Amino acid sequence: MAHKPIKRVPVPGFIYVIAAFAGLGGFLFGYDTGAISGALLYIKKDMTLTTFQQELVVAVLLFCAAMSAPFAGISADRFGRKKVVIAAALFFIVGALLMAFTPGYKLLILGRAFVGVAIGFASMTVPLYVAEMSPPNIRGLCVSLNQFLITVGILVAYGVDLSFSGIDGGWRWMLGLPMIPAAILLIAMFFLPESPRWLIKHGHKERAKTIFKKLGMSDIEMEGTLQEISKTASHQKSDFKQLLKPSIRPALVIGILLAVFQQISGINTVIYYAPTLLASIAKETDVAALIATVGIGSVNVFITAIALYLLDRVGRRPLLLVGTSFMIISLIILGMEKWIPHGEEWITWIYNGSLFLYIAGFAIGLGPVAWLFIAEIYPMRIRGVAMSCATFANWAANFIVAITFLSLLNTLGPSLTFWFYAVIAICTFLFIYFYIPETKGKTLEEIELSFKKGGVTPPLN
Ligand code: BGC
């Protein structure tokens, strides 16, 4: 298929409003995964929790996020993208209320489970919803606004944890405050439109046209888009059986693998355990380690902002390849700790520098692109269920890394652990190089048709 060059046409602000409000789902995802490390320090004292109970507080969220993704997929295809985001907002609110007012451990766990379900719903549906609304020439930016808000959520969580530390019952605020953005998300979603692509698939062409118009589409563009969508949309019911069809399999496998590589290359060992790592490896004090953690959160936000700017300009593939190379280099350096003398100031600089490089590499590539890519590559008729498989795989991998990392560190020691992740990062690089096609500037329908024709490897460009 011949591809048109990307025209930088002016786009009405409405799509940015949609992406920003729906992106509150991403903010809450980041906040709730980031806030727990600080809150847990106080909860464990207040409730005298065992180590296992503490691990459960962390793990239950990841587990429920993984388990809820398939339901989100089926519901998004059957009932619409918007309703699933509304359900996510409700789960976020109930979860925050339960955690903030809990009299004891059991309701705390229930609250974390609610938030887990909310995150499973939001992490899948928000990128999907925004991808289906965005013009191709700014789709990378709009969808990845969600990833940007995830990183902002993580950073805000670190800040809130610091502000409420030392205050009696401060952890209730740490876990309860996200109720506010969740309520804003809920209200906003009642005013935002349903995805026009989903509406067309369900026979509401006229409503879809009105929304496309509001999104700035001219009549000619709309005719072309409607024709392309009707070529790809079918009225078959969306279910998991459809995923086994040979025409779907390549995209399904590639998306799942990218989602898994995003996690098993170790990002959350840094996001969740940075203070522990810095304190033990670089022999930093707790306070210095906490400050460095805030630094890591800031680099994550800043570099993700740069990625947003570059995604629709240089494309997804170059960012993925450069970012993964940074991650490999920094993991190799971190793994050299066995041979480098401890306790000297320059060592601390090297370790901090490597962690910063690692985060920067993730933030420019795998962070935004993994979610963007799985929102772009699946055929319209099963987009929700297919994306939910990749989302499930992402959260399941996240769960496995989170529960094994500290044992791995204890058994193998830091050097081998980091090299283990370096090997995975090298595999990630090779996988991207050979299998991830460029999707920059193409309509979702063009991407779908290319996959159908077997253009699953880089030549998609
Ligand atoms: C990942 C999360 C990670 C976050 C860090 C997201 O894309 O899915 O697991 O914590 O990025 O920025």
Describe how the helices and strands are arranged.
Layout: H1 14-22, H2 24-46, H3 51-79, H4 81-101, H5 105-133, H6 139-164, H7 170-176, H8 179-191, H9 196-201, H10 205-214, H11 219-232, H12 249-264, H13 267-281, H14 286-311, H15 316-334, H16 345-364, H17 366-376, H18 383-435, H19 444-452
The structure holds beta-D-glucopyranose.
Instruction: Please summarize the sheet with the most strands.
Output: none
Along the chain, the helix and strand elements come as HHHHHHHHHHHHHHHHHHH
Which kinds of small molecule does this entry bind, naming each only once? Answer: beta-D-glucopyranose
Instruction: Point out poorly predicted stretches.
Output: 1-8
Give me the number of helical elements.
19
- General shape: globular
Total strands: the figure is 0
- Report how far apart the termini are: 10 Å
Q: What Rg, in angstroms, do the CA atoms define? A: 22 Å
* Beta-strand content estimate: under 5%
SSE-based structural type: mainly alpha
Share in helix: over 70%
Average residue pLDDT:
89
Short description:
With 461 residues, the chain is mostly helical. Helices cover 77% and strands 0% of the residues. α1 packs across α6.
